[in-house]
Protein: D,D-heptose 1,7-bisphosphate phosphatase
Amino acid sequence: MERIVFLDRDGTINEEVHYLYRPEDLHILPGVPQALALLKEAGYRLVVVTNQAGVARGYYTEEDVKRLHTYMNGILRESGADIDRFYYCPHHPSHGIGVYKKSCSCRKPATGMFQLAEREFGVDKAHSFMIGDKLLDIRAGKNYGLTSILVGTGYGRELHEEDMKTGAEQIYDCYADDLLEAAKWIVTLSRHE
Ligand SMILES: [Mg+2]
Ligand SMILES: [Zn+2]
Structure:
């Protein structure tokens, strides 16, 4: 079994761009290469789990998604550490076209993509994590039984500030300003075990 850090993509690793698929629109967020390197050095496998409803809506193709991931990993490999595996959900329950219109089991907050990783690597759930910038990421991580971290990049900061203001119960286990802070939190936690 592997210790895995599951990562949302848009707003967590790269700048949130509406329906991103063109390599020229990809901007890796500050501190991300260092964060990934830190996690890899600590023995974690890195797995991206990303909802890509743009495929379902016909805005871009699965080939575009794969091409972007290859391109992204080239950049990450040179600057820090690369992603071990990318999983994406190309479906949407109501806005999908053709075969992509589907109430699937992979679209977060469902856990299908986590289960694919489980089949491929085996997941040491007690020592694995989910990191994302939306509550659906946190819900997905929680549904699968992982410690889940909300990052302040993408939509996360706004969500967190709203929770602080209203005193709503936080469903995430930790809030970190960005991926580097989240990585440091994980590494510190695993050192103390
Ligand atoms: Mg996101
Ligand atoms: Zn799906």
About this structure: The pocket of magnesium ion (ligand 1) is lined by residues 8, 10-12, 132-134, 154 (CB under 6 Å). The radius of gyration is 16 Å. Strands lie at 4-7, 45-51, 85-89, 129-132, 147-151, 174-176.
